[in-house]
Write a structure and sequence with these properties.
Blueprint lengths: L1 H16 L1 H19 L5 H9 L4 H6 L5 H6 L7 H17 L2 H8 L4 H9 L18 H12 L3 H8 L6 H8 L2 H13 L4 E4 L15 E9 L2 E16 L6 E9 L10 E10 L6 E5 L9 E12 L13 H38 L1 E2 L2 E2 L4 H29 L5 H26 L1 H4 L8 H12 L4 H17 L3 H8 L4 H32 L13 H25 L7 H26 L7 H24 L4 H11 L11 H11 L4 H5 L14 H13 L1 H12 L9 H10 L5 H18 L8
Parallel strand pairs: 1-4, 2-4
Antiparallel strand pairs: 2-3, 3-7, 4-5, 6-7, 8-9
Helix pairs in contact: 1-2, 2-20, 3-13, 6-9, 9-10, 9-13, 13-14, 13-15, 13-27, 14-15, 14-22, 14-23, 14-25, 15-17, 15-18, 18-22, 19-20, 20-21, 21-22, 21-23, 21-24, 22-23, 23-25, 27-30, 29-30
């Protein structure tokens, strides 16, 4: 038996080592099989693949992430100019915002705020300085939008749209010099207000299915016959359209008469059109969940424009899809994540404060375990949101175009933002649902589904984009193998494929052994770049990375092109990648902040949640794998002892909440996007003042409770009567009496809600 086994091993080694044998018995059969099962790439998929860059997500897909590379990306920081703008212009803008007035009464920003945004360059954050813009970093852009969103989603959206997907960004990257000189200075000054029309009734998340057409033709323009486009479009959901002076338009460009060449369907193209141009119709406004930012429709029928209105000029005809993918991915990584992170900062600041000042059954509600369970999620998710915001903008500022990363950020951060808001509303309950000037949650709660739906509906982002692009783009061999399989020269293709196959086999074998070894040892032998409290998280993340790589390999091998249609399976594998990315961001933020000990409860809660969610998604993917033998193999390699990644304990949740029910640096780091300032019209300063006053009196409250237990004071007295009795009994001094009364006045104001004589 032993001799037979040795002979088998020798035969396998010989086949692998001797090229002629390997080519005959392994490479050629596998190559033929790959050509049949590997998913074909459509033209739009290929453009999407080529448009973006592989960044940190590529490491997570390889099974052995280079954690040192993650730490080497650097810490995002604000320049002196960016910080000055935030400390001055942004803070001034916050004092001008009355969101109740904006949403419930005006249905628009007040004229003075519009003028301030234009005059101070809020619409020019990404426009280069040489054209009069700010030229700010992605991190600064995100921070500005988030701070505005802490007081008004409507104001934040108004600012973020010109600074994400829109004419300004497209012109900066692709415009001709003449177009840049014509438009960018006017956009920077606010003399021109841009919008970008991409979405239509029949093309939402599937932007590649744009039905709007531009037909190449000759017509008269400015007194002479020129070559141009006859445009017909019908767009909706276009933010800033009702007030826009310049319209960016995406359409399918066609040349049926062959005026430009032999190609009839040139593809998606982007053009820039003044809204005053004859035939351009700006329709009525939409009402996006009662928010006040401008959003509406635009249409046109056989509107003629010259070819040089194409963004980038005629040479960019048909290249709009790639332009959109590159710019859309950047917007996904900045704007919507900024809104979600602001939600977390507001929810953490106000809900910790409210939970401390709101008493029921003689105790602050923040000390009830039921409340602590939800409050711990708010705090940990906010830490996670801030971490992901920083890592994602870091990638963008490194001048990479991480399309998979930004899809992860868009989907998971907007969903986390919604979760945070739901938990905050549950805890603050009546305070949250009664709309009025004092309500700081209501409008954010109403607006949270907006981020879920725009720039690609979240369901499709999760089920089609994250893993669909990530598996092919980030895999070290699959994309190259697909390109090889499509080569016309078969001999050259076989030769190249042989090299790829050997590398792929070694890669797959390593991940299989790593998955099994880490599962059996509790990730003991996995590497980690740090020591201390977070060391084990790096090890477990490496284990999950190897397991994801192994499962992806087998899924693509067994299912091939069918994997595209297995959206539930793809979504779960995408969830594993996403949780690994979010976990990476959390670990990096902890390092960037200098490994602050008071951040550890939030880090532990966030990381244990990420690992639990990753393992759960992987477990469900294995359980639902179409091939049962492969499912059994994966379970034996990845979870041979079962899945033991659990959610955070009740003890950890309580520790996290108790650490945040007091003023301190950790709480400030998690709420800095929601600043305090004089003239705050939204109720946040009110509840924060009550929180601080109550906390300063915590020793006095203990004194009063002790006096009640000793019989010096009656129990269950109203607050004002209790303080008066304590003063008369000399339990407290006059100064202490004044402090308690002041804290109580602030407490009552903070827990009260708005009342109206009529609505």
């Amino acid at each position: 038996m032993t001799s037979l086994l040795i002979l088998v091993i020798i035969a396998i080694v010989a086949v692998l080592a001797i090229k002629d044998l390997r080519m005959r018995f392994i490479t050629r059969p596998v190559f033929s099989f790959f050509k049949k099962v590997l998913p074909p790439l459509s033209e739009t998929e290929r453009e999407a693949m080529e448009a973006g860059d592989v960044w940190w997500e590529g490491e997570l897909f390889r099974g052995k992430p280079n954690w040192d590379a993650l730490h080497a990306y650097g810490k995002p920081t604000l320049s002196v100019e960016e910080k000055a703008f935030i400390d001055n212009q942004v803070m001034t803008a916050l004092t001008m915002i009355d969101d109740f007035d904006i949403v419930q009464q005006r249905k628009d920003l007040p004229p003075e705020l519009w003028d301030f945004f234009k005059r101070e360059g809020f619409f020019a954050l990404i426009i280069p300085k040489k054209y009069g813009g700010k030229g700010f970093s992605a991190y600064a852009n995100s921070t500005i939008v988030a701070k505005l969103a802490s007081r008004s989603v409507s104001a934040a959206v108004t600012v973020m749209v010109p600074n994400s997907l829109g004419p300004g960004e497209l012109l900066t990257h692709y415009g001709t010099q003449e177009q840049k000189d014509r438009w960018l200075p006017a956009l920077a000054k606010g003399d021109e207000i841009p919008c970008f029309a991409l979405t239509g009734p029949e093309a939402g998340s599937d932007a590649g299915a744009i039905p709007d057409e531009g037909i190449v033709c000759r017509r008269e323009f400015n007194g002479e016959e020129v070559l141009g486009l006859s445009l017909t479009w019908d767009k909706r959901y276009i933010t800033l359209a009702p007030v826009a002076t310049v319209l960016g338009l995406a359409f399918q460009m066609k040349d049926p008469e062959g005026l430009l060449g032999d190609k009839v369907n040139l593809g998606i193209t982007c053009a820039l059109i003044p809204t005053s141009h004859p035939g351009v119709e700006i329709g009525p406004r939409h009402n996006p969940l009662n928010m006040a930012f401008m959003n509406g429709t635009t249409r046109g029928k056989e509107v003629f424009i010259p070819l040089d209105w194409i963004i980038g000029g005629p040479q960019y005809a048909g290249r709009g899809w790639r332009m959109l993918v590159e710019c859309l991915s950047a917007g996904r990584g900045i704007s919507l994540p900024a809104l979600a992170t602001a939600t977390g900062h507001v929810a953490t600041k106000t809900t910790t404060a409210y939970s401390y000042v709101r008493h029921q059954f003689g105790m602050a509600i923040g000390h009830f375990e039921g409340v602590q369970e939800a409050l711990a999620c708010i705090i940990a998710n906010t830490y996670q949101l801030e971490a992901a915001r920083r890592l994602t903008t870091t990638g963008i500022d490194l001048k990479v175009k991480p399309s998979v990363v930004t899809a992860i950020a868009k989907y998971h951060m907007t969903e986390l933002g919604r979760d945070v808001m739901n938990d905050a509303m549950d805890i603050q309950s009546g305070k949250g649902i009664q709309l009025g000037p004092k309500n700081y949650l209501g409008h954010g709660f109403m607006a949270s589904p907006i981020s879920i739906t725009v720039e690609g509906a979240n369901i499709l982002t999760r089920s089609l984009m994250i893993f669909g692009q990530g598996a092919t783009r980030c895999h070290p061999y699959v994309l190259a193998e697909m390109e090889t399989a499509a080569m016309e020269d078969q001999d050259e293709a076989i030769e190249r494929f042989d090299n790829l196959l050997m590398g792929h086999m070694a890669y797959a074998s390593r991940n299989a052994l790593s998955s099994l070894g880490n599962a059996l040892s509790g990730s003991y032998f996995a590497g980690a770049p740090v020591s201390g409290d977070t060391r084990q998280y790096y090890k477990h993340m490496t284990r999950m990375s190897a397991a994801l790589a192994l499962t992806t390999d087998l899924a693509m091998l067994i299912l091939g092109g069918e994997l595209k249609r297995k959206e539930m399976l793809s979504a779960r594998l995408g969830d594993v990648l996403s949780q690994l990315y979010l976990g990476s961001a959390t670990l990096k933020l902890f390092e960037d902040n200098g490994r602050q000990h008071d951040d550890l409860p939030a880090v532990h809660h966030a990381m244990q949640t990420r690992l639990h969610q990753a393992a759960k998604a992987l477990d469900e993917a294995i359980r639902n794998f179409p091939s049962k033998p492969v499912s059994w193999l994966l379970r034996a390699l990845i979870f041979p002892l079962g899945n033991h990644f659990h959610l955070p304990s009740d003890k950890l949740s309580s520790e996290l909440v108790e650490s945040m029910l007091k003023p301190g640096p950790a709480r400030e780091r998690l709420t800095f996007l929601c600043p305090d300032f004089d003239g705050d019209k939204g109720g946040i300063a009110e509840v924060e003042a009550a929180f601080e006053a109550q906390y300063q009196c915590k020793g006095l409250y203990k004194t009063l409770r002790r006096a009640q237990k000793e019989g010096k004071l009656k129990g269950k007295l109203p607050q004002d009567e209790l303080y008066q009795a304590a003063l008369e009994a000399k339990v407290i001094s006059d100064e202490e009496f004044e402090a308690l009364n002041r804290a109580n006045v602030l407490r009552v104001a903070a827990i009260n809600v708005d009342e109206f004589c009529s609505l």
